[in-house]
């Protein structure tokens, strides 16, 4: 696992976008794994900008999102389909049929099986973007999720429901169930970047980078991935013990690669 410590949240998005741009330039028909939530929004803005400037194209790209709420239609403003249309898909040259998000209104068991099959028939995910929950979840794999799990239905933890309540108005019913890619599914991505910013993520970042690998902190499974990059800002990195080492590696990497991270 490599750790990049960025000055602030904008720089986290910059380094994350740089990884995606590199991926799309070297393989224009990449399969991307995408996340929702607050963290990737600034990264998506940068990708939109790069696409407008003609530096990247999504014309041959396929995407698979991590998760979707069960029980809300994709037209619902809080569905992850709506989120992705608003924050990325409506602004780039991607074909709608190449964008995949689990469907929360279909039979969830069948939908989960089909989602796995679609990822496999697309050739697997080249680059997976992740955020992390304050409790260490990735996708909606809450603490105690099997580290080998596949796409399936999960019940959201009360903390996650509280954290995400900011997206729902008080008179709206907030779903407690979701379909999520499993941890085993996520781990099959050829490269993973996890982004985190803000001091409220500092405990989760400490646990995932330096803690023991445990189902109590699902993101800690990334310690087993051979190509995982964790990009955090200083606030999210503040509890890391080996911070000086990560900064040293970062300096050495920059020295060897020029300005490219
Ligand atoms: C979203 C997802 C979640 C979020 C996590 C962090 O598709 O899978 O795991 O990445 O809850 O959310 P934010 O970025 O809002 O802090």
Comma- or semicolon-separated keywords:
261 residues; alpha/beta; globular; Rossmann fold; binds fructose -6-phosphate; 10 strands; 7-stranded parallel beta sheet; 3-stranded antiparallel beta sheet
In short:
It contains nine helices and ten strands. With 261 residues, it is α/β, with parallel strands linked by helices.
**Helicity level, as a percent range?**
25-40%
Bound ligands, named by name, code or SMILES: fructose -6-phosphate
Order of helices and strands: EHEHEEHEHEEHEHEHEHH
Query: Low-confidence stretches at least 5 residues in length (pLDDT < 50)?
Result: none
How many distinct helices?
Answer: 9
Strand order of the largest sheet: 1-10-9-6-2-3-5
CATH architecture: 3-Layer(aba) Sandwich
Binned strand content: 15-25%
**Arithmetic mean pLDDT:** 96
Integer-rounded radius of gyration = 17 Å
Structural account:
By secondary structure, the protein is α/β, with parallel strands linked by helices. It has a single domain (2-256), classed as Rossmann fold (3-Layer(aba) Sandwich). The chain has 9 helices and 10 strands. The protein has helices spanning 9-26, 41-52, 80-87, 108-121, 158-164, 183-187, 202-210, 234-237, 243-257, and strands at residues 2-6, 31-34, 62-65, 67-69, 99-100, 127-130, 152-155, 177-180, 191-196, 228-233. β2, α2 and β3 (62-65) form a beta-alpha-beta unit. The chain binds fructose -6-phosphate (F6R). The site of fructose -6-phosphate has 13 residues, from loops.
């Amino acid at each position: 696992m490599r750790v990049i410590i960025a000055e602030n949240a904008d720089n986290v998005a910059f380094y994350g976008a740089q990884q995606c741009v590199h991926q799309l330039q070297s393989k224009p028909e990449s399969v991307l794994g995408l996340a929702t939530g607050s963290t990737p929004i600034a990264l998506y803005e940068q990708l939109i900008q790069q696409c407008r400037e003609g530096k990247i194209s999504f014309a041959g790209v396929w995407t698979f999102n991590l998760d979707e709420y069960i029980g809300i239609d994709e037209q619902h403003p809080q569905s992850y389909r709506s989120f992705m249309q608003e924050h990325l898909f409506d602004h780039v040259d991607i074909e709608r049929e190449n964008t995949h998000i689990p469907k929360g209104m279909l039979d969830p068991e069948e939908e989960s099986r089909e989602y796995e099959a679609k990822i496999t028939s697309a050739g697997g995910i080249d680059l997976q973007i992740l955020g992390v929950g304050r409790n260490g979840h990735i996708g909606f794999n809450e603490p105690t999720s099997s580290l080998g799990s596949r796409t399936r239905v999960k019940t959201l933890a009360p903390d996650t429901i509280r954290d995400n309540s900011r997206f729902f108005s008080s008179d709206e019913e907030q779903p407690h169930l979701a379909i999520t890619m499993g941890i085993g599914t996520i781990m099959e991505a050829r490269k993973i970047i996890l982004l985190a910013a803000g001091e409220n993520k500092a405990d989760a970042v400490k646990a995932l980078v330096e803690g023991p690998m445990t189902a109590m902190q699902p993101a800690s499974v990334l310690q087993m991935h051979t190509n995982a990059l964790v990009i955090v800002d200083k606030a999210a990195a503040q509890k890391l013990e080996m911070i000086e080492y990560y900064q040293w590696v970062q300096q050495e990497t920059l020295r060897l690669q020029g300005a490219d991270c």
